[in-house]
Design a protein that fits this description.
The protein has 132 residues and is of the alpha/beta class. It contains 5 helices and 4 strands; from the N terminus they run βαβαβαβαα. Strands 2-1-3-4 form a 4-stranded parallel sheet.
Length: 132
């Protein structure tokens, strides 16, 4: 059975994310972000979704990605705070947006690998409009 593990960083939308995954006929389970590897990996997930949350990535005691998530080699999708946590876990930097818009609470993503070098940054709104 194909399954996705959703790690919840405190998002008010975690249940909605799970529902949307299930509507795509994919089994998923929702776990707190700090669930031990044995419990999450027992699901034998094909990938992870890291939900958003209210924390600041640099706040003392902020949730973080446990090593087994990246060590698994499985695909990982970070949503809002989950993307910030993923960025930090991979050695990146999270900065406050200079945009006054409250319509884009998620960070702006910019490709930084050698393969993606030279690509333009994409805002969340640009990405949303490109998939519609």
């Amino acid at each position: 059975m194909d399954a996705i593990a959703i790690l919840d960083f405190g998002s008010q939308y975690a249940q909605l994310i799970a529902r949307r995954v299930r509507e795509a006929n994919v089994y998923c389970e929702l776990f707190p972000w700090d669930t031990p590897a044995e419990k999450v990996l027992a699901l034998q997930p094909k990938g992870f979704i890291l939900s958003g949350g209210p924390a600041s990535a640099y706040a003392e005691g902020a949730p973080y990605i446990l090593p087994y998530v990246l060590e698994s080699g499985l695909p990982v999708l970070g949503i809002c705070y989950g993307m910030q946590a993923l960025t930090l876990a991979l050695g990146g930097r999270v900065a406050v947006s200079q945009s006054p818009s409250s319509a884009m609470p998620c960070p702006t993503a910019r490709a930084v690998s050698d393969v993606e070098d030279g690509m333009m940054p994409h805002s969340a709104n640009e990405l949303r409009s490109s998939v519609r």
